[in-house]
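User: What would this chain look like folded?
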Amino acid sequence: MSAKSDTTTDLVLLGVLAVLWGASYTFIKIGVETIPPITFIAARTLIAGAILFAVVRWRGLAMPGDAASWRRFAFQACLNSVVPFTLIAAAERSVDAGFATILNATSPIFTFLLTALITRHEPVTARKLVGVGAGIAGICLIVGTQALGGIGHQLWAQLAIVAATVCYAGAAIFGRGFRGLDPMLPAAGSMLCGAVMLVPLSLAVDQPWMLAPSAASILALLGLSVFSTALAFVIYFRLIHTLGSVGTTSQAYLRVPIGVGIGAVFLGESLGPTAWLGMGFVVVGVAAMTIPARKPASAR
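Assistant: Here's the prediction, encoded as structure tokens.
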């Protein structure tokens, strides 16, 4: 396969990932209406982990048998599912799905800063700086200045989402350490580790056998687990290896109009009047951070 077709495939997958994760905020908002956050996320990781493990076995792959790999899976689970999933689910009991989408869209900024200041595994180029700036401008245009008036209310929930965003940034960088493994293995391993951590906590805290969740919450849980988690994580780990950590988390910019749009359709939330212009900036930001620069032609 040519480099051009590889790039096209990666950009299509980046869009699919943005849709899957953009929808996740609406799934969560509906789910936590009748299911407590810890139990909701415990079920999410358990269902997604079981699906991914079944696919691993179906493909004839073998999960690593050494303790070191499972420690890495467990650490990735903390960064990419256990902590951020639970924080966002708890926060969405008091903030809108669209607002959660917007706050969580800052993950490329934190990834970029961690990369530039600590790991330095990717070059800090002018085009990536432009991409960050364009993405921020697009988010501001999509949200509208009126939406920022809510900052300060439900402060704990907003800070929880920001903390989850920092976790995602760290996970994007740590996920590079799984290079060489089939993407299904860290996806399944981290989900299973997350379930092992959260299910006992759910049993102790929420006593889920006493709950009476609505049909809508159960359907939201299934949609979140199957599509926005199991399928999304396979795509995510592939893109970490091909686009890099900053490039992969740049789908957060594309996720904003998608997530806010899904919230508008299913939850009655509204888009700002400058949304289309903002989406243009978003596309520019994603392109600037993900499309590889052309290499100069070699001298003949």
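The CA atoms of residues 74 and 193 lie 5 Å apart. If you want, I can go into more detail on any region.
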